[in-house]
Amino acid sequence: MDHRDLLADAARRPLDSARQALAGIDIETLNRVPAPGHSTIAWLIWHAARQQDVQVAELADSQDVWRAAGWVDRFALERPADAMGFGDGPAEIAAVRVTDPDLLTGYLAAVVDRVVEYAAGLTAHDLDDIVDRRWDPPVTRGVRLISTIDDAVAHVGQAQYLRGLLADWSIGY
Questions:
Q1: How far apart are CA 53 and CA 30, in angstroms?
Q2: Cα-to-chain-centroid distance, residue 46
Q3: Which domains are delineated in the chain?
Q4: Which end of the chain has less Cβ packing within 10 Å, N or C?
């Protein structure tokens, strides 16, 4: 197995988990704030996709899927088009109100497809390119890709846990 296969497999995992978390969910549970200052399931899954979309678009020197494929209009959030969730407070989290869970899985699927497509075109040498010198050590393309995948995994995992808390639901492991 080469690096492209590993990256593709890792990138697809948050989507599979998001589909489980959103299966049969009602709109109230999707958008419920469990306690003041906490995230909703909708925000967690939106942010999982959005942060990855923005960061991979930057790596690929391309427009994000959010705008290029019209997701910004489909979601119609009361948020700036370039918002991705980093540093969001309660008001910004509440502004990510979603009435159709399929919108979240559709956007995440489009982002995952973009990540897989991008990774498929990378050589092993490309993964060693320095893409961010603001950190010590500087961040490579490969590390940034893994970081975006890890962030998506973490947020979708939080959404699964929150679903269990709010809806007394389990995914049957």
A1: 22
A2: 6
A3: 3-167 (1.20.120.450)
A4: C
